[in-house]
Each structure stands twice: as structure tokens, then as C-alpha cells.
Amino acid sequence: MLCHRFLRCFMFLRLHALLLANSLLTGSDTEISVPPQNHTLSNNPRILRDILNQETLVRFSMIQKMQVFTMDIIEIKRNNNLLMNKVDALMKEQASATERHSVLEKENEKLRQQVNALQEKSTALDTTDKNWENMIGTHDVEITNLQDIYGNITKDIGELRQSLYGNVRKDIGESKESLSDMNRRLDSWNTSITHFLSDRENVMPEHVAFHAVAYSSTSVDDIIFDHVITNIGGGYDNATGVFIVPTTGLYVLSWTIEAHGRLTEGVLLVNGVQEGLTKAHEVSSHYDTTTSFAVLNLTVNDTVWVRVITGRAEARHTMFSGWKINKTGTYTAFNALLSRDVSGYHIVYDNDTLDTHNAYSTSTGNFVAPRSGLYVFMMSAVNFGKFDYNCWIRFSNGNSQPNVWVDSQSGYYDSSSFMTFGWLNAGEYVYVDADRMRKTSVFAGWQLVDDMSVSKSTYPAFISRLSSRYSGTPVLFNQTFSGYHHGYSVTTGIFTADRDGVYVFLYNIEAYNEIVLTTLRVNGVDKFELRSAGRSTEYDDTSAVSVLQLSSGDQVSVGLKHGTVDDDESLFFGVLLFEM
Question: What's the pLDDT at 431?
Fold first, then answer.
């Protein structure tokens, strides 16, 4: 009996649970009917079948719901993966946008710097315009003064003429021919004054030479060489840094750039067009200086200046100089560059930008003298990478010459420059001898005088070398070259001018493992300073050009301010350009 009651209760609870589950799954309210107490399940098989059938339906319904639920979960996972992919894509786009934003900010900063540079250039041009206006105003005042003088003279002439007429009236016996002669002389006087006023503005200087030093550093801008040492002919303006050509002709130009711990490039511009390039390049905390040359055919009012296009040019050791070759049209001149890197002992410069008498050959690299005379040659040797070697300018007549040393290190530029001279007969040739040479290297020269018009033994010219390390002052360059030399003493290290004139000098100082400071001195007074910075356990040489107006008896030397000058490649050169 107890078992029977327990079975009935169990079946009742199971039926209750099934109906409740069915109600939850189907969302319908199902009433649970409780059989009467006196009605047993075992006595009613139909009720048991209904319960089992309903259980089966509930199971099927639960399976379907679980399948739907499973599909929903799969769909949610798939959607979640899609969302994660979209999030990754958005994050990549955000990173790319951030990078583009950074690039745009840098470009914007560059544009801002260019705008500032243009504004500064505009300000400089405004200043130049004001300077020109002031100059024009000064000339106008001078012309006005001359016109006043002319007016006074005219007035005096009128008074004189009236006086003469009065005397003529008083003196009946004076002849009319004498009066006509006086009138002709007065008319001639008026014509001479008129021509003087007209020709005044057309006067061009016979001699032109300048040298200036920048006393402030310059970064990516036009260099203003504000400290003027020489300015014959008045062509250089130290307010703008521009040389305005005062008279048409052939000109030699030289510019020196000093860099500190970086690459600095300086270009020579003529009317805004690049005509030359220098590269000073050094590791951090070290200095490097480079000098280059150009021989150009310039026209009156051409503008010439130097611009830093990369890095910064350091103050007091950055310079600009130039002079006019006076025998334009008579004597030859040439300027040759390299358009590619070359190697070999006989360097062939393949780009002759100037060759007045077809004396230089781009196929052989030789300059052949078209006539006998004194010639001056210049070389700027540029190298890149881990190389070191000597460079010479060779003469076919056996004229001995010193050498310079080029020693660049891996990943850096280096250059060496020097000038020399030689007396050549017609047909003798000159070339550059070096292991290799980088493009932008320069070989140039010109004829200075005819050997028929001067004495070789007394013409002021010299090139000398230091044969051993030296720590005294003035630096004693104790070995001379080129056969003929005049004016320089190997016992004192001093050049003495024997006539009034304009002279050009170049000196090159080699330093070893230290900084060497030197100066070019005139009568014991420093004109400018040069810094040679030998890298650790390595060499470095530095050169610069100076143009000086000297009087007879003036003395020029190289003074040592700090360090010890190394031997062999340390040179001192000078020559008279023209007498004044």
C-alpha cells in the first residue's frame, strides 16, 4: 500500500513538472488538474499515456529551443568576430591617421620655417631698398650740389660776360674778333661742365676686389659677411651680403664655410642661379672647414652671394672674397668641375663651365698654356668615405709643387683646397694628380701677367711649406717652391710687399689630434682667424683665401694662437694681383 502511494505521488510530481516546463517553453498557461484522491493512475492507463505523450512533446520543444539557442550563440560569436575585425581595422586606421597627422605637422613646421625665411628675406629686401634709396638720395644731393656749383659758375660767367660787354662798350677800340673768341671759350667751358655732370654716373672702377668675414652664424639662409676687410670698387654690401658687379669682366670668387658636428652645404649664387657648392662635414663636437673657388664671366649689376642650404655656417671662420681679372679678353681663364666621381692619378674634369681660349681639355684633363706668362691655379679636392691620399697640381715643365692631404672617414665628406702659381711657356701643360676625386671638385686658373712685361725674379709671388711641426709665431714655412719666388723670407716667415697694390693670399694649416688656431696678420695686426680641428688620432687641414690692399713695406704673416701646426701639408701662398 505504501509503495503504491509513493508511486502515485511521484507520477503526480513529474506530471506537474512537465506541465510547468511546457508552460514556460510555450508561453501558455496550463492548468494542472489533480486527479481525485480516489482515482488511481494505475487504474487509468489513458492518463499515463497522456502524461508520456506530453513529456515527449515537451522534450521535442526543449530540443528545438536549444537548437535555436545554439544557433543564436553561434550567430553572436560570428557577429562578435566581425565587430572585433572592424575594431582592429579602425585601430589601424587611427594609427595611420596619427602617423599622417605627425607627417603633416612636420610639413607644416617646414612650411612655417619657409614662410619665416621668406618674411626675413622680404625684410632684408626692404632694408636693401631703403639702402638704395639712401644712396640715391645721397647721389641726388651730390648732383644738386654740382648743379648749384654749375649755377654759380653760370652766374659768374654771366657777370663776367656783362662785365666784358661793359668794357667793350667803354673801349670802342677793342676788336669784335676778341669778343667772339671769348664767347667760344665760354661756350666750351659750359660744354665741359655739362659733360662732367653727364659722365659722372657712368664711371666704372678699374680695379675690383673684396674680402669679408661673417661674424654671426647662419642656418639655411643667405650669409651676411658683415665684417669687411677689403672692398675696392665698392661692389660688396655688408648689410645684405651681396656683391654687385661694378664692371663687366672675368672674376675669381672664393668662399669658406665652417661646420660644427654636422653637414653644412654652402652654394655660390649668381642672380639666384647656383654656380658652386661646398660641403663641410664633421662628427659631433668637432669642426670642419671647406673652401672652394669659381672663375666666372660676370656682367655689370650681376648679383653674387653665398647661401647655406644645409646645416649651419659658424661665425668668424666663414668668409667670402673675390677679385676681377683685369686683362679680360687678352689672357686666358678656365673653370672645370666634376660631374661624377672618378679615380686614377690623372684627374679629368669633364665639365668646363668657362674656357676663354679653349686651353683646357675635358678629354685629357690638361690645361695647355696658349702663351708664355705667369699663371695662377686653384684646386678644391672633395672626397667621401674612408679614404686618405695626397693631391698635387702637376706641371709638365717639372716645376716642383707641394701637396695637400684629403682624409675623409666613413659616412663623411672631407675637402682640401690650395692655390699655386707657375711661369709657363706656350704649350706647357698642367693637371691634377690624385687617387680619386668626388664630384663638385674644382680645378681652375688664369693667366696673371705676360712674362715679356715683367721680371720673373722680382715679381711678388711665392708658395712655401712647413717641413716640420711648429709651435712658434709667426709660423715659419721654411721651404719654397716653383723656382721663382720674391718677397717671402724662409728665415722669418714674413712676406714683405715691395710695391703698392692688391695681393691675394691663401694659407692651409694641418692639425693633428688637437685644435689649432691661426690668424692672417698684416704688420702684426690680425685680419681674420682660422680653426683647424684635428679629430682624435686623425688629421684635419683648413684653408682660407684673403684679398688685401697693401702699401710698399707692409708685412704679411701667419700667426699661431693655439696648438702646434703639423708639417708637410701646411702651406702659405701669395701673389700680386695688380698695382695701385
Answer: 97
Could you tell me which residues are beta bridge partners of residue 218? 313
User: pLDDT at position 319, please?
Assistant: 98
Cα distances (Å, whole numbers) of residue 449 to 41, 67, 331, 427, 453: 143, 110, 8, 16, 7
Is 521 contained in some domain? yes
CA 565 – CA 556 distance, rounded (Å): 18
Taken in order 433, 439, 441, 443, the sign of the CA dihedral is positive
pLDDT less than 70: residues of the chain: 1-44, 124-125, 127-203, 328-329, 536-537
Residue that finishes a domain, picked among 152, 173, 202: 202
In-domain check, residue 318? no
Per the structure, the complete domain to which residue 555 belongs is given by 455-580
Residue 30: predicted pLDDT? 45
* CA distance linking residue 451 with residue 328, whole number of Å: 17
- The stretches of 407-551 forming alpha helices (DSSP H) are none
Name the domain count of the chain.
Answer: 2
Domain CATH number, residue 559: 2.60.120.40
Last residue of a domain, one of 152, 171, 202: 202
Other residues' Cβ atoms within 10 Å of the Cβ of residue 368: 19
Give Cα 72 distance to the centre of its chain: 71
Whether residue 468 lies inside any domain: the answer is yes
Q: What 3-state class would DSSP assign to 237?
A: strand
Instruction: Report the share of the chain in percent with pLDDT over 70.
Output: 78
Asked whether residue 310 is domain-assigned, the answer is: no
